[in-house]
Amino acid sequence: MATDLTGFTGRIRIIVDATPRKAIDLAIPEAVLRMVKSLTFAFGTGLGKANQIFWDRRVITGDGNDPLDLTGPLGSPLANPFEGVVNFANIKGIALLNRSDETLVHAGGTHTATDAIIKIFDAVEGNTFLGPCEAAPTGFTLKPGGMFLTTNPLAAGWTVTDDSTDIFRVDNEDAVDDALYDIVLIGEST
User: What pLDDT sits at residue 105?
Assistant: First the structure.
């Protein structure tokens, strides 16, 4: 299924600002660090382009998981902001925030802050999307308040294959508390 979008522009940025200081006699010198990298996507397919996006704020109950089917309807299909079905052929950008440590409103109600840890890229199923890992890892853990951001602007991105590598699984490592997370996926549709 091709994208139903007629245009797309996007930008993923990383900014690191730091100012360490050290008091010495008669002065407090400082060093300023500013690291900025920006990746811009134009509409279409190929190098530096994308034509599909998915974003959501999601809750996972204690000891549960959230299998996002990147190519089709496992339960319910992913949708873009205009309710069009998202079927990714590849992923070029992933941003994930573990917001479990915050009290926030979401579509199902209000999440009360917890210490829930979430895990991604844990190859517990045969059709897990491993994206930037490129091999079967034991997963990447995000503590409460943790962030994950990665990009692949190349023409092929990270390939998504239906019924083979199409499940982006997010696990709640907390046996009791709910986990709250925000996710953004940018890529090309099939």
Answer: 87
pLDDT, averaged across the chain = 91
For tokens 């990665």, the residue is 150
Q: Which residues, including other chains, have CB under 8 Å from residue 184's CB and lie 6 or more apart? A: 53, 54, 55, 93, 94, 95, 96
**Domain count for the chain:** 1
Would 60 be classed as within a structural domain?
A: yes
Tell me, yes or no, whether 40 lies in a domain. no
CATH code: domain of residue 60: 2.60.120
pLDDT digits (tens, 9 = 90+) for 89-142: 999 999 999 999 999 988 888 999 999 999 998 877 678 888 888 676 778 899
144 belongs to a structural domain: yes
Q: Cα separations (Å) of 29 from 17, 99, 151?
A: 17, 36, 36
Q: Which residues span the domain enclosing 68?
A: 51-189
Note the pTM of the prediction, 2 decimals: 0.92
Q: Which residue type is seen at 171?
A: D
Number of neighbours of residue 29 by Cβ within 10 angstroms: 9
